[in-house]
Amino acid sequence: MMDDDKKISRRSFLKGAMFLAAGTAIPLAAFSRNALADAKVSKAAMHYQDTPNGSAHCSTCIQFIPGSGGGNGTCKVVAGSISPNGWCLAYAPK
Ligand code: SF4
User: Fold this and answer.
1) Closest residue by Cα to residue 78 from 67, 88, 70
2) Quick one: which atom of ligand 1 is closest to the CA of 58?
3) Predicted confidence (pLDDT) at residue 27 exceeds the cutoff of 80
4) Ligand 1 site-directed mutation target among 57, 58, 72, most atoms within 8 Å of CB
5) Domain check: are 30 and 44 in the same one?
6) Domain span at residue 91?
7) Do residue 49 and residue 63 come from a single domain?
8) For residues 86 and 80, what is the distance between their CA atoms, to the nearest angstrom?
9) 89 in the same domain as 45
10) For residue 70, what pLDDT is reported?
11) Do residues 31 and 46 share a domain?
12) Which of the pair, 92 or 20, is modelled with greater confidence?
């Protein structure tokens, strides 16, 4: 009789643990996906510079998001304010 009670309680515990694991795994997975999508690399890591590298510069890069009025914009890869005349290692021409 005691063994049956222990088995039931152990089984109940395992079901509860599985339910909790399933309930927390989905939000964590969604959070991780969003965090990765939003993550940008530092300027230093990408050797960003405010000047072009020959004819290559941010305004001709596929990752560049222009700012208003032709001023600094942003980048899909590198964090911070990005000059249209800048350049980094991740340069990819349009
Ligand atoms: S990836 Fe580099 S070169 Fe391209 S826009 Fe971003 S900072 Fe500029």
Assistant:
1) 88
2) 8
3) no
4) 58
5) no
6) 40-94
7) yes
8) 12
9) yes
10) 87
11) no
12) 92
Question: In this structure, are residues 48 and 76 in contact, taking their beta carbons and an 8 Å threshold?
Answer: no
Between 37 and 60, residue with greater pLDDT: 60
Confidence (pTM): 0.65
Q: Are residues 14 and 29 in the same domain?
A: yes
List all residues whose CB is within 6 A of at least one atom of ligand 1. Answer: 48, 58, 61, 63-64, 75, 77-78, 82, 86-88, 90-91
Report which protein residue has its CA nearest ligand 1's atom 6. Answer: 75
Length of the chain, in residues:
94
Beta bridge partners of 73: 82
The structure tokens 């960003």 sit at: 48
Kindly state whether residues 53 and 18 are assigned to the same domain. Answer: no
Report the separation in Å between the CA atom of 49 and the middle of ligand 1, taken as the mean of its atom positions.
10
The domain tally of the chain equals: 2
Let me know whether 33 and 54 are in one domain: no
Tell how far the Cα of 35 is from the centroid of ligand 1, in angstroms: 20
**pLDDT exceeds 90 at position 48:** yes
